[in-house]
Design a protein that fits this description.
This protein is mainly α. The chain is built from eight helices and no strands. The N and C termini lie far apart (about 65 Å).
């Protein structure tokens, strides 16, 4: 920040100042969108219901991020399948939206069976220094009779 002020003082028409201003506007827009979503989810029930569908993908966000990055790299890089990269931002957004639409039901299925995504499990196990339980506790398929519960 101080560097940008000094550059502006020395050379007001500098491209460095313009790029700094652009970066600030980009971050400002991002903060606006994130804060709007956070406020909406917190205080507007309809907004919360709409975003509730994305919760399973968020619970295994690191795994989804890595899976999406690796898949797109393998598809579009020169050391992968070398498919023609999306020509515009619109096509890139369509590719990513399609992939995310596939990830959502897979994420929902996964979090119904496991506590963490694979990447989250590795991260958590390394953080705590021991293997973390991966599977959710098995649900009881039959009700326990009241007499059996009292005698144990």
């Amino acid at each position: 920040m101080i560097g940008a002020v000094v550059v502006y003082w020395v050379e007001p028409e500098s491209r460095y100042v313009e790029s700094f201003a652009y970066a600030l506007s980009d971050y400002g827009t991002t903060v606006f969108y994130v804060s709007t979503i956070a406020q909406g989810v917190t205080f507007v029930p309809a907004f919360a219901r709409a975003f509730h569908r994305f919760a399973p993908a968020g619970r295994i966000g690191l795994t989804n991020y890595l899976l999406q990055s690796i898949t797109m790299t393998v598809l579009f890089s020169h050391y992968g399948l070398s498919l023609k990269a999306p020509s515009t931002s619109i096509w890139l957004a369509i590719n990513l939206a399609f992939f995310f639409a596939v990830q959502l039901p897979v994420s929902r299925w996964y979090v119904q069976r496991f506590r963490f995504g694979p990447a989250e499990w590795v991260w958590r196990s390394l953080t705590y220094g021991r293997m973390q339980p991966m599977r959710l506790a098995e649900r009881a398929t039959q009700a326990i009779p009241a007499s059996a519960a009292l005698t144990s």
